[in-house]
Amino acid sequence: MKTSEQAYLDLCRYVLENGTKKEDRTGTGTTSVFGYQMRFDLQQGFPLLTTKRVPFRLIASELLWFLKGDTNIRYLLEHNNNIWNEWAFKNWVESDVYDGPDMTDFGRRSLQNEDFRDVYETQMEKFKQLVLADDAFSERFGHLGDVYGKQWRNWKTTKGESIDQLQDVIETIKKNPDSRRLIVSAWNPEDVPTMALPPCHTMFQFYVADNKLSCQLYQRSGDIFLGIPFNIASYSLLTHLIAKECGLEVGEFIHTIGDAHLYLNHLEQVEVQLSRTPKALPSLAIKDSFSSVFDASMEDLEIIGYEPHPAIKAPVAV
Ligand SMILES: Nc1nc(=O)c2c([nH]1)NC[C@@H]1CN(c3ccc(C(=O)N[C@@H](CCC(=O)O)C(=O)O)cc3)CN21
Ligand SMILES: O=c1ccn([C@H]2C[C@H](O)[C@@H](COP(=O)(O)O)O2)c(=O)[nH]1
């Protein structure tokens, strides 16, 4: 069956065949191309990949966290979501109050050395408990800096005012759907130096035609095996939520990527995934009681008919 998942598998194949070897910040090494675009017709199903299991629960709780304007990982931990832990942990172990075992370069060392991995996991567990239970600690080390939630909902102007870009865009979609200015930017040059990770999904734009809402994302940097499957599902979910609030159908999600890379320690995993045959895409149901993007909760969302191939484990480059 040919579904829009093929667009993702084509990207993997394209980079395997045409990528250039390139060193990167994390020291892992990648094969990479510059400039690539995929299109997903959201009418044909919800693009949660079926050639490996992708954890929708984690994607949805991360998006709800952005939508709340929250930048502290405590909310994610409360939802048993660990995908941002390493970046907050880094701030703690590099701070002057940290007096535990040396955690320099913990991402790479925990992959290479089992003894170190045990020590690292103990420290990470301690960190998580502190963020969850200790308010002062969580205020100091749970924040990732001015990441997505902050820029979407609370962009600080030079006049000291705050702009709710997302709220403004939703209002404009309702009042003036033909607008060509339906843009949200997460890339704030002034804040980039203080962010745990400068935004990878840098800006997105909406488009309304034939009563359908489409969204295009410009992602400056994309980890094809781990990050991109999350990003596709996350922006597709965002498009569904905004369409529902605005009384529109869903159109397309268009994903434009700058540096699209496969980490060299993900190549075997990608080959396994490419050997599998895609299944029918699931669908997304949003509860009728849902009325506003900003009040959405996990209970409002349900993925129906998701029967993927098994998950494929891969290490994340920190
Ligand atoms: N190198 C890198 N790649 C990323 O995709 C990425 C970052 N860094 N840093 C910030 C966020 C965090 N994101 C992440 C982090 C981890 C997973 C991951 O490990 N996913 C697993 C499941 C994890 C689980 O079940 O807890 C997967 O199989 O998809 C995915 C996205 C996306 N981003
Ligand atoms: O949503 C996300 C967040 C991050 N990534 C990936 C892309 C890169 O592999 C790293 C970020 O490293 P930089 O050196 O800052 O580019 O994280 C992603 O794919 N999706």
UniProtKB/TrEMBL annotation:
Subcellular location(s) of the protein: Cytoplasm
Family matches, as PROSITE patterns: THYMIDYLATE_SYNTHASE
PANTHER family in alphabetical order: THYMIDYLATE SYNTHASE, THYMIDYLATE SYNTHASE 1
Annotated pathway: Pyrimidine metabolism; dTTP biosynthesis
InterPro entries found in the cross-reference section: Thymidate_synth/dCMP_Mease, Thymidate_synth/dCMP_Mease_dom, Thymidate_synth/dCMP_Mease_sf, Thymidylate_synthase, Thymidylate_synthase_AS
Gene expressing this chain: thyA
Family: Belongs to the thymidylate synthase family. Bacterial-type ThyA subfamily.
Molecular functions per Gene Ontology: thymidylate synthase activity
Provenance organism: Terribacillus halophilus
Lineage, opening ranks: Bacteria, Bacillati, Bacillota, Bacilli, Bacillales
The UniProt record lists the keyword Methyltransferase: yes
Reaction equations catalysed: dUMP + (6R)-5,10-methylene-5,6,7,8-tetrahydrofolate = 7,8-dihydrofolate + dTMP
Keywords carried by this UniProt record: Cytoplasm, Methyltransferase, Nucleotide biosynthesis, Transferase
Chain residues that bind (6R)-5,10-methylene-5,6,7,8-tetrahydrofolate: D223, A317
Quaternary organization: Homodimer.
CC terms in the record's Gene Ontology section: cytosol
One of the Pfam families matching this protein, by short name: Thymidylat_synt
Active-site residues per Swiss-Prot or TrEMBL entry: C200
Protein name in the entry: Thymidylate synthase
Residues forming coiled coils: none
